């Protein structure tokens, strides 16, 4: 009697006489099993990557879309504090930092797809809450909670990309996904400036709710569960029912309770920050750069509307210097990164690229952050033509891209599938904390030092933090042995 593929798969997981306990382990039927997301058709895998990238873009647009209309928010709620003005913009980032730490572990327990849907719905609901808020307290609370929900796609997107792409082809997909945290804060104010001027600040939140609803519809249509752990557990459950063998277990099953998974999600990133000099130094660098960008956002109204007379609708256009830099950064990265890796492999006589090769572009181009701060600060101080400070923001954006992107790729390759999620979580927490709290120091900094020396101080800090990647590149192989022990 001929065997069907399903009967062959069933025999593969059923224990036979004399077999040991490993016969009860349920795995993929074969290396090219079509049920494994990594073997899905290319179109289906790229549909997931693009959807996840858009899911990461919209919350990052929400971080700054209200910035051009923040004066209207303060006027409606009778608030005059500059600190509250800054926090009204950046408190969303605090949600992005803290929410995933407590909630992303649910993806390991219940699957990525249900968490995506739940997070999208909560994000949309609280965007509507922001649009309808009546007091500054409501506005702040709704903005924080929507940030917590908006951080979920950012926390799980890297895992989804890892589920559907081979390591050798993961670079471009990761770069596409990582563009959201950089492009979103630039695209948001460009749109928000026109909306706030024409329809009022509340329409920035209505638009975000509409965009969130559209992406949720796309998520329902396009996305399916990609977590190998969840898929194999479902397969094992079906086989236990169909075969009557209660001993069948998924290869990736673990006995941790949801509470233990949550504790692990909180403890491991914290331990990495304490015990890993690489994670700590690069996360602090990312936090400084991210914080500087959001600090700049809080100065744009005063500089370009106050000094240069930009209208509310046109004020969003000053973010285009950063936007052009990010687009150019993607092009530079896409063209140079493979060539650099190939050249260094040839020079070092190795068959596999070393993680440290990811740091070369950071070493070469991250000093652009300091250069841009010097240009922006002193040209704003001396009120040089408005195009020159915008050129300064271009250099800041270019340098920022080559801090944040190589950092993520380096940590992924350094810690591998076992520890990359924890390393990236630690990096994200400090990065978004920097974006939340550094701008609060802006009013005091610029009152004391003005734009010139204030941005010069930040520029020298950025140069100081550019030194650790040089050391990690030089001594990376020695450090890697110690980093393996950390996990």
UniProtKB/TrEMBL annotation:
SUPFAM superfamilies: MFS general substrate transporter. Its main location: membrane. Keywords: Cell membrane, Membrane, Transmembrane, Transmembrane helix. PROSITE patterns: MFS (PS50850). It comes from the Eukaryota. It is found in: Cell membrane. This is Major facilitator superfamily (MFS) profile domain-containing protein. The lineage of its organism: Eukaryota, Fungi, Dikarya, Ascomycota, Pezizomycotina.
């Amino acid at each position: 009697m001929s065997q069907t593929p399903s009967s062959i798969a069933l025999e593969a997981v059923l224990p036979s006489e004399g077999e040991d306990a490993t016969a009860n382990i349920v795995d993929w039927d074969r290396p090219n099993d079509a049920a494994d997301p990594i073997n899905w058709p290319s179109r289906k895998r790229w549909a997931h990557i693009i959807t996840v990238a858009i899911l990461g873009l919209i919350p990052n647009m929400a971080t700054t879309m209200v910035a051009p209309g923040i004066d209207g928010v303060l006027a409606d709620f009778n608030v005059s504090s500059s600190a509250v003005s800054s926090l009204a913009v950046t408190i969303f980032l605090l949600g992005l930092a803290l929410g995933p730490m407590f909630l992303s572990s649910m993806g390991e327990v219940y699957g990525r797809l249900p968490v995506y849907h739940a997070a999208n719905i909560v994000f949309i609901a609280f965007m509507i809450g922001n649009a309808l808020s009546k007091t500054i307290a409501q506005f702040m609370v709704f903005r924080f909670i929507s940030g917590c929900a908006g951080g979920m796609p950012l926390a799980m997107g890297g895992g989804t990309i890892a589920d559907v792409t081979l390591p050798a082809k993961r670079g471009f997909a990761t770069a596409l996904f990582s563009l959201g945290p950089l492009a979103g804060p630039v695209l948001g104010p460009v749109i928000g400036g026109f909306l706030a001027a024409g329809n009022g600040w509340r329409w920035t939140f209505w638009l975000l709710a509409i965009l969130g609803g559209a992406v949720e519809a796309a998520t329902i249509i396009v996305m399916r569960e990609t977590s190998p752990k969840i898929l194999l557990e479902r397969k094992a459950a079906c086989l236990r029912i169909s075969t009557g063998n209660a001993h069948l277990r998924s290869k990736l099953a673990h006995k941790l309770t949801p509470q233990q998974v949550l504790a692990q999600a909180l403890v491991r990133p914290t331990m990495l920050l304490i015990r890993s000099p690489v994670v700590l130094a690069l996360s602090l660098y990312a936090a400084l750069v991210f914080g500087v960008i959001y600090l700049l956002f809080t100065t744009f109204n005063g500089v370009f509307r106050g000094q240069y007379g930009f209208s509310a609708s046109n004020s969003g256009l000053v973010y285009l210097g950063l936007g052009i830099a990010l687009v150019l950064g993607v092009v530079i990265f896409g063209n140079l990164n493979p060539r650099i890796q190939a050249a260094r492999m040839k020079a070092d006589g190795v068959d596999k690229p070393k993680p440290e090769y990811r740091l070369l572009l950071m070493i070469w181009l991250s000093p652009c952050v300091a250069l841009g701060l010097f240009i922006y600060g002193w040209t704003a101080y001396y009120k040089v033509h408005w195009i020159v400070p915008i050129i300064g923001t271009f250099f800041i954006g270019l340098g920022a891209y080559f801090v944040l992107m190589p950092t993520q790729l380096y940590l992924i390759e350094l810690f591998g599938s076992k520890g990359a999620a924890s390393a990236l979580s630690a990096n994200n927490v400090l990065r978004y904390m920097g974006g939340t709290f550094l701008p609060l120091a802006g009013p005091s900094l610029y009152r004391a030092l003005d734009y010139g020396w204030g941005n010069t101080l930040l520029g020298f800090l950025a140069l100081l933090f550019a030194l650790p990647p040089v050391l990690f590149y030089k001594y990376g192989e020695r450090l890697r042995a110690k980093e393996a022990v950390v996990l």
